[in-house]
Amino acid sequence: DAGVTQSPTHLIKTRGQHVTLRCSPISGHKSVSWYQQVLGQGPQFIFQYYEKEERGRGNFPDRFSARQFPNYSSELNVNALLLGDSALYLCASSLTSGRLDTQYFGPGTRLTVL
Amino acid sequence: GQSLEQPSEVTAVEGAIVQINCTYQTSGFYGLSWYQQHDGGAPTFLSYNALDGLEETGRFSSFLSRSDSYGYLLLQELQMKDSASYFCAVRDPSYNNNDMRFGAGTRLTVKP
Fold first, then answer.
1. CA atoms within 13 A on the CB side of A9
2. With an 8 Å Cβ cutoff, is B87 touching chain A?
3. Hey, what long-range contacts does A59-62 have (CB within 8 A, 24 or more apart)?
4. pLDDT at A99 over 70
5. 3-state DSSP call for residue B81?
6. What is the pLDDT, as a whole number, of residue B2?
């Protein structure tokens, strides 16, 4: 079975630009969460979506937005990019949004903002 | 405030046993998870403790003491491939529903 997939794998943007990152969850999983991981740190929660509805939002500015589609895939959008947005963006899927559900991570998208 | 503390680095030799500790301070608590992440890779789920005690999965074991807000990951018969970063993570119901808060990670280096 395919795991969580993310695209693109790498991306280089300049300050002020906009970026869209994509995630496809494991087949049968209905929840997708997005995390930002800065080098040398643990992942930081950005959003969780379940059944196309936002179920949680981390401490990130409104420049960050996301959505989930009927096929449970998801997009993370970041507007007006800043140098500090350079990071590995991870998508994780789980069966539901339940607290006992294990989250399975994708390989991530490495975003570099110049 | 809410925080998870774990050592930044640990070094051990092949075949040895290593313990990675994690202390947490959160408003609520559902359980403690451990993830492994190799350089350039995605975090991989290792174990989850919701109740006090030891959970064993092959060479890896994880322990939780809810009264002490403390847990550890025990890696036995270390292999070179175990060199990676290890993260503890807490599900905190008071932190944006039930999503996870991660520690900064412990970088384990296994030497021959």
1. 4
2. yes
3. A60/A36
4. no
5. helix
6. 67
Asked if A41's CB is within 8 angstroms of B99's CB, the reply is: no
Looking at chain A, how many residues does it have? 114
Please list, in sequence order, all residues whose beta carbon lies within 8 angstroms of the beta carbon of residue A77, skipping any fewer than 6 positions away: A18, A19, A20, A21, A64, A65, A66
Q: Please tell me the number of Cα atoms within 13 Å of B66 on its side-chain side.
A: 11
Question: CA nearest A34: which of A24, A53, A48?
Answer: A48
- Amino acid letter for position B55: E
| Residue B45 near chain A (CB below 8 Å) | yes
Nearest to B80 by CA among B14, B36, B16, B10: B14
| Cβ neighbour number for residue B64 with a 10 Å cutoff | 23
pLDDT tens-digit map of A14-54: 999 999 999 999 999 999 999 999 988 999 999 899 888 98
Report the alpha-carbon distance of residue B77 to residue B62 in Å, rounded: 15
Q: What is the pLDDT of residue A56?
A: 84
Judging contacts by C-beta atoms under 8 Å, the chain B residues touching residue A60 are: none
B50 to chain A: closest CA residue: A100
Rg, C-alpha atoms of chain A = 13
Query: How is B42-55 classified by DSSP, letter by letter?
Result: --EEEEEESSSEEE
In this predicted model, what pLDDT tens digit does every residue of B44-67 receive, in sequence order?
999 999 899 999 989 999 999 999
